[in-house]
Amino acid sequence: MPEPLPSSRLKRILLSLLLVAGIVIAALCYYKITRTYQPVDIDSIRPTAKRNAPLFELYDYHKPQERVRLATYLGRHRILLVFFDGQRGIIDDPVLKELRNYLPQLKSTRTKVIAIGDTLPQINRAAIRQYQEKVPGFQFPFLLLSDLENEKDPLLSYQVRRAYGMYDEQEKLLQQALFIIDRSGQIEWSQTGPKQSPSTPDAIRKLLKKP
Q: Where are the stretches annotated Disordered (predicted)?
């Protein structure tokens, strides 16, 4: 049976091991702190497959007797589809405000903007007329459609939002979102915001990047 090491020698060995371990840990920490990471290009991340945009037809505030069909614009335009919070009002809604500010850039991309809210066309039209008293000549610059609640049959409420997954069935919550639909009718980009407004500048940058 081998003789046990003297306690003084054992202490020296343990101290040496602790010193080596400390040096290794310090080196790893220094490496992590000083290492430079290559930034990720978000635009290079592509979905595995595009999906077809659900077709729809809804009433516009400007011509409440005529339904606007998404299919009418496919093949000729890219579509920026906006689901906004109608309770904030079409004039004060922050997403719609930003879109109006970006109108020159949107026109340069030949993009058709379609905004969908949950208020009646008559209410939207009245809000615009009231705003025109403050700003004579004001015209709402893009399509403003109504996807409404059906009080008689809740399953028929907000059919377009449901088709795009923008209605929380459990919480009964209308979600806000931006969708870019290409000319072939496929969703190429989307951003949703159930609790806060989606970022309009992100959508504009995406539209400006591709013709």
A: 189-211
- Can you read off the two tokens belonging to residue 119? 């208020």
For residues 57 and 72, is the Cβ–Cβ distance under 8 A? no
Q: Is the pLDDT of residue 127 over 50?
A: yes
Q: Give CA–CA dist 57/145, Å, rounded.
A: 9
Contact residues for 102 (Cβ-Cβ < 8 A; gap 6+) = 200, 201, 204
Contact indicator for 151, 144 with CB cutoff of 8 Å: no
pTM for this predicted structure: 0.72
Q: How far apart are CA 194 and CA 114, in angstroms?
A: 19
List the 67-69 sheet strands across, edge first.
51-52, 186-193, 176-181, 78-83, 111-117, 143-146, 57-60, 67-69
Using DSSP bridges, classify how beta strands 67-69 and 57-60 pair: parallel, antiparallel or unpaired.
antiparallel
For residue 37, what pLDDT band results from cuts at 50, 70 and 90? very low
The pLDDT of residue 201 is 72
Cα angle value 73/146/141 (rounded, 5°) = 55
Q: What is the pLDDT of residues 95-124, one digit of tens each?
A: 898 889 888 888 888 899 999 999 999 999
Q: Check if the beta carbon of residue 73 is closer than 8 Å to that of residue 111.
A: no
Q: Nearest-CA neighbor of 122 among 113, 130, 114, 110?
A: 130
The torsion of the CA quartet 201, 148, 129, 72, rounded to 10 degrees, works out to 70
- Residue with the bigger pLDDT between 195 and 70: it is 70
